[in-house]
Model the fold of this input.
Amino acid sequence: MVLVTGVSRYLGSRLAGRLAADPSIERVIGVDTVPPVRADLDLLGRTEFVRADIRNPLIGKVISQAGVDTVVHASVTATPHGAGGRTPMKEMNVIGTMQLLAACQKSDTVRRLIVKSTTAVYGTSSRDPAIFTEDMSARSLPAGGYAKDAVEVEGYVRGFLRRRPDIEVTLLRFANFIGPFIDTPLTRYFQLPVVPTAFGLDPRMQLLHETDAIEILRLAATSSRPGTFNVAGDGALLLSQAIRRAGRVALPVPARAVSVVGRLIRRSGMADFSPEQMQFLNFGRVVCNARLKHEFGYRPAYTTAEAFESFLTGRPVEPVIKPSAVRAGEKALAGLLGIRAERDITLPAEPADRPAPAGRPAPADRPAPAGRPAPADRPEQVGGPARAGGRRTGSGRKRTPAPFGVVRHG
Amino acid sequence: MAEAQVIRLRGGDLRGEANTSAGSVGQPVDSAAAEANLSRDQPGGDRPASSWERKAAAGLAFLRRRITGQYEVDEFGFDPELTESAVLPAMRQLYHTWFRTEVIGVHNIPADSGALIVANHAGALWALDGVMAATAVHEETPDHRFLRMLGADLLFTTPVLGSLARKTGSTLACNPDAERLLSIGELVGVWPEGFKGIGKPFNERYKLQRFGRGGFVSAALRTGAPIIPTSIVGSEEIHPMLGNAKTLARVLGLPYFPLTPTFPWLGPLGMIPLPSKWYIEFGDPIETAQYGPEAADDPMLVFELTDRVREQIQGNLYRLLMQRRSIWR
Done:
């Protein structure tokens, strides 16, 4: 019997749907302050919905009366429902977690607790190590916002772990989500035609595909994988590179003015930026996902670059700068010089060229790497319950080649 | 101290080699594609593309990939394509033509495993010794290896320079980063004197300053990577630091503000380094694997190794200085 908080949100609803489809789970109870959107109802299946505010002690009654044994706390979020503002968001995140943990502590039935946290707990600055492991912490406590909430939530979770060592706790620190369907400040940012960036700064970004996120939450809820894990796709993209891949136009503004521009965009309603998201876009953050692969036993199906590609192909967003136009420009210049332009392995095979090498399909404008599961597909579980050193069982999913065949050497 | 093996301290035309390598090392993807072009051209009866045509096509393809973002960076933000195609060619000019750098002891650099290159720091205005050491490693090693440099946090706080440093393979000087790079078999370059070395007055040239807290030694111990003490001669004369405008430095938030014969008097012209003749000697490696990773927590051993590295760099510096005939040639 599983209880999922934040069930009316994207990840919570997908997770509940997946759990509801699992016949070995007796009941799935979803909790949120607002009912799920109509479109998600089919997806949720037999999930029972309880409209409750987890800030309210009522949540304890739900847990005890239903005899819940697994609690997935997926409602800690950077973007609260409805009329936001910082205060209700903080209440929801921090007080809500406190209430939920209090209820779990009292419960005789709860055996497993999964908490969705964020890699934002590591902070972001120019003076940080390039790659964070789970043992590191922020140089200085995040000044506010979501990151601070997450740090506080993690503090309460650690306290809970001390008081109830018999309950398995899985703390998942997620990198920024991306994908064809999920809606986050970052996805909206990359849909702006002209993207503001901080002049002279080029952060590294690490992304996690939405299907990987749901699968990892599902695995944590259905099998015993206690511990603290960074959850992020392999590799990184530079912000400038991601903007170029998206065919957007970067608008560098002085670093100090970034927050002003962010506020303007926020007010215009095009995208919702909080100050720490702007900070993230200044310095970025990369975490080490080795523990996820080896101890938790899951290798994200999408690398950061592939997840970003999936986001681009999955949405009806026309690039402002089209790769085909750039290619045409290259050919025109080559023509002027009287030379033959090099073959472009990332674009459709051109009549004059040989067919693209096998394994590299060349559909319209923006090719998807081969072997990619369709966005709605579930990535296969890795290693099974026995965490066999993160070795993949090779059950159907083959490693996709680096999407653009660039050879790293040296 | 063991006498380092001396390789072509005099003569040895590096420039010829450099030009050929510049063409062929350029970009792996490009050269593969260029070959594909070539092989297609020949059977078709077309005239084979000449070398400049191939280079121009490769250049255009490079630009196209830059515009569409179709290149790879690693988790540290290192962009090998940009480094090899845009940054290193410019640095090669400086390396060969301006400083006429000669390199000794390349055989001490492992061909395919991790090592920590520790060198003296100088140069007042620019940390050109780092850039030149990286160019030397890339030019002289058979597989054209990259040197992943560890930089001060001031570098990464500076807009433009900071992101350029990341793209060319540098990262913040801290133990987690150094150990991660060494454990994946990268060559890591570190200048433990830091600002004390780069900002010392001209009359203290080639006198090694204190070596930080020995963090680099514990990184090497923890990963079992050899330490290669490296001595760089020529870097002290590019901007002889005659004075330090301390008040101005404090106002600007800098560790020091150099006054050289040309800077800041000549404005931007004063930032041009003087064309001293450079020697870079990669000394005999100091192995650390035999101590085991736990030894990193033994401060006595860390101090001892730090001193050994320091003495070897200093000794090689003095010998190179004795052998050099003039600052300029």
